[in-house]
Amino acid sequence: MRLQSLSDQDLVSLYAKGNESCLEELLRRHKRKIFSYIVSRVLDREVANDIFQETFYRVIKTIKGENYREDGKFISWVMRISHNLIIDYFRECKKIPRNSGNEEWNIFDSLNLCDENVQDRIVKSQIEKDLRKMIELLPEDQKEIVRMRLYEELSFKEIADLTKVSINTSLGRFRYAILNLRKMMKEKNILLEA
After folding, report:
1. Mean pLDDT, all residues of the chain
2. Which of 120, 126, 142, 178 qualifies as a cystine partner to 116, CB 3.0-4.6 A?
3. Which helix (H) or strand (E) holds 29?
């Protein structure tokens, strides 16, 4: 049986019955998305690692304790666990995440730069700087959805679940954010191409 061809639901079911390699497959599929989401919120890789591990500890505990209710939304459920742990972390530390609109927030921290020559990196850096400035001018709800969609690679369904709004609201906010960014680019005569 090829685990890669199984759905998340099938993997969870088999893992609950004792097939440990199913958890490895679930981790392989979703680690990048979950970890990127966590690190984008806490802005500290060590803290993000701790929260990621606690997330999967809770996933394992819930599945092994036969408390997981199958509804076809495994990744959304895991993202909700990590989201709640992030909130707990900030409550415990009495910290406010730096991505709440303050100037230290760097939306590009999670981007991986490819092997580029120096000129490409300089151009890309300038594009990112221009785009970052424009994103900061967006309303908070639009700023958040741009980050979640483009840089954390979350689906609109996952965004809707995390922000507790409908999918249509998520889509609408993203659309308005893109329209606002295009308008700003046109007004400032900025071309975002490397």
Report:
1. 80
2. 120
3. helix 21-42
